[in-house]
Amino acid sequence: MYGYRGKILRVDLSSRNVQVNNIEEEVLRKFIGGVGLAAKIIYEEVRREVSPLEPENKLVFMTGPLTGTLVPCTGRYVVCAKSPLTNAWGEAHSSGFWARELKRAGYDGIIIEGKSEKPVYLLINDEEVRIESANALWGRGCLETERLLKNELGENFKVACIGPAGERLVRFASILNDEGRAAGRCGMGAVMGAKLLKAIAVKGTKEIPIKDPERIKKILRRIYPQIMSFPTTQIYSSYGTSGELLSFYEYGDVPIKNFTVGDWDKIEKISGEVYNETMVKRKIACWNCPIACWRYVKVEEGPYAGLELKRGPEYETLTSLGSLLLNGRLDVIIKANSLCNHYGMDTISTGVCIAFAIECYDKGIITNKEAPNVSLKWGDPESIIGLIKAIGERKGIGDILAEGVKRASEKFGKDSEKFAMHVKGLEMPMHDPRAFKGMGLQYAVSNRGACHLQGLILRIEQGERMTDLKIYERLDRFKIKNKGRVLGILQNWHEVLESLIICKFLSIPPGHIPGLYSLTTGIPITLDSMLEAGERIYNIKRMFNVNCGITRDEDTLPYRIMHEKLNEGGALGQLISQNELNVMLSEYYAFRGWDEKGIPTTETLKRLGIAE
Amino acid sequence: MNEFLSENLEEDLKEEICSTMKRLFDRGLVSALGGNVSARLPGANEFWMTPSGVFKGELEPDDLIKVNLDGKVIEGVIRPSTETPFHAMIYKKRADVNAVVHCHNPVATGLALAGIPIQPITAESAVVLRKVEIVPWAFPGTDALANLVGKHIDGARALILMNHGVVGVGYNLLEAETIVETLEEVAMTQFVANFFKKEIPLIPEEDIELIKKLYKV
């Protein structure tokens, strides 16, 4: 087998049994790999009544056929499970070098089942797979855990691990690898913590076989001039994702003060330009990445002087721990990011929960009685740092916020759900859908809840075209027409990218991908077949969600987005009304071959080979 | 046509597409990322297309993609040129055309941008190029552009695509290449003349009339 390893490790932590399962080529053809394969496994193996933090939930780490190969930007993995935030489909993605190491050890993925009696970590050294005690690691932060494991096992091991937040079942706990790269969303770290699995350390020494490496090299050499010329590639290379912060602000897309205002006089202080000039020391790249969007940062002055992060904040973190909280201090953002890395918590969800708590305090929904010994003020470093610690340690009000903003609002009541910014339980990312209405539809229907990455329809709403995908039209960002069809196509394509797995920041035209896949794997495929696989993957996730009770009622948006207009900025006066959302949903469901309740029809499932 | 012969002819055609691209690249009509060439065996319903986004100065036959007249990929590894739809449109409309060359001729495109049409300043420009129409702007790679090209290609050997480049067509690759090269030569001559003098002499009216009669321009 080329590209693929054809093997998945199945580790039952309850029985301490380790198996190696072969994957049939027919399955790979239908589901490609990565998130596609993980979706098939979870759909077939995780029953609807399983609670996310029970041993019966399964945690699936998966690489793709392009992972760790010559094709650029292929250092990524995906980790999937039933999410403790949404009680439905959960997935999170990360990059770096860990995924390539797993492939080199001889595995496409790992399925973690059951629950250990005591804290353990998984050691994979080529064929040698052992479950080891993690007593000495339990309670340690993510970066410290990685360092300790490398000290013990050797620098060649790559480590993915959880921190104290995952151990304490913070519902938005993340999994970190390679000194700060995070599989952040959906609480996959909590699922790992519930299984008492602290880390997976892996070392592989086997070359990944490629069908026609010389031809791939020859093609890539000559397409680099084009792919490096795309605007986003250049911005990400020059500034990291923070390079887009000011342009998103112009659109009214950057959330400020829990999505309540459209302008802010401190926005430039957290811009990519200022960040790169004052904090960034050098660029960092993941495996085989010509873009190098990550930034090594160091705080030179102030109370956090000397603080360094090898993987400094990017756009989502600069805004979720910055503008969302009216925090215009980069040093505070870096400190907050470093604490989230220590505890192993998603910076987006953390920021949204803190913003929610401060607004609750402002409105008198919570008082010093519910939140003693903690400050709750906009833009206040003490509040931000204090709340992150409280959440990571599940202390006081932090224990409630650690449940995620949806559950916290249910607990606090008093109409607080009107400004609890989440979809299906997953906290909103840092793109305000009132600035790009297609993003509203994307958030509403995404399988994992409010997801800014699956579809990225805002690119089309900004004016980009994807002729390979037959997306020619310009979409007005404030209108709703055609958004259902375009989003459906984009989501299908993104399932392909996340199954291969190839980073979305590599602006490689879709038409090149089937060839690179075929030259890697030896399996011929067309763009149409790939898109059909993407559609199959999207639908199998939707069916998992339907089984978990999700239908049209859950495909919705936070009250604030649908009822409160921004009074200033690039999205002045905009909201997404229930009627607008309904129109977009109906168009989207029709394109997908789903019924009006948002359930895939039998014909659709048969056409995609999901149902007999 | 027997299969073996057909296969050899196709391989020869692919070689010729690559050598055409190389000459156009060396002449500065195709740039590192801009321009594309296609050709088909006479009467075929499929054609060979240069790839998209691959450095144009070093194309090899294995890089080419076979597509049908609906633009669907039949054979090949990487993505065909973004402009495949208008190449397909030309083959659909013009049974006499077996080669299409799309270049980014700097001078011809520049003159069009300045609102200056290609004029009959030499017999060659009148005879070889006939009338060079300017196709209004449409976004590259779209069906809209393909439809516009289809609307203007009847009876034309060369077109200028506004804010984009030029198209030359021919019975074979050499003819299509000749068209875009001639177009640039004429455009350059006209540009030089216009630089020094606003009103430049065209070839005499009676000769233009003769050319019109003989060549039905």
Structure commentary:
The complex is a heterodimer of chains A (612) and B (217). Chain A is of the alpha+beta class and 612 residues long. Chain A has three domains: 7-203, Aldehyde Ferredoxin Oxidoreductase,  A, domain 1, CATH 3.60.9.10; 240-420, Aldehyde Ferredoxin Oxidoreductase Protein, subunit A, domain 2 (Orthogonal Bundle), CATH 1.10.569; 437-506 and 526-607, Aldehyde Ferredoxin Oxidoreductase Protein, subunit A, domain 3, CATH 1.10.599. Helix content of chain A is 39%, strand content 13%. Chain A is built from 24 helices and 17 strands. In chain A, the strands form four sheets. Chain A has a six-stranded mixed sheet with strand order 2-1-6-3-4-5. In chain A, strands 8-7-12-9-10-11 form a six-stranded mixed sheet, sandwiched between helices. In chain A, strands 13-14-15 form a three-stranded antiparallel sheet. In chain A, a hairpin with a 2-residue loop joins strand 16 (422-423) and strand 17 (426-427). In chain A, helix 2 (34-45) packs parallel to helix 21 (527-547), helix 13 runs parallel beside helix 16 and helix 19 (483-500) crosses helix 21 (527-547). Chain A is globular and about 60 Å long. With 217 residues, chain B is of the alpha+beta class. Chain B has a single domain, classed as Class II aldolase/adducin N-terminal domain (L-fuculose-1-phosphate Aldolase), CATH 3.40.225. Chain B has helices spanning 3-26, 84-93, 106-113, 123-127, 143-152, 173-196, 205-215; strands at residues 36-39, 46-49, 65-68, 73-75, 99-103, 133-135, 158-161, 165-170. In chain B, strands 4-3-2-1-5-8-7-6 form an eight-stranded mixed sheet, with helices on both faces. In chain B, helix 1 runs parallel beside helix 6, helix 2 packs parallel to helix 5 and helix 3 crosses helix 6. The A-B interface holds A 215, 218-219, 221-223, 225-227, 229, 465, 467-468, 472, 509-512, 515-516, 518-519, 526-527 and B 32-33, 52-55, 58, 60, 62-63, 73, 76-80, 82, 139-144.
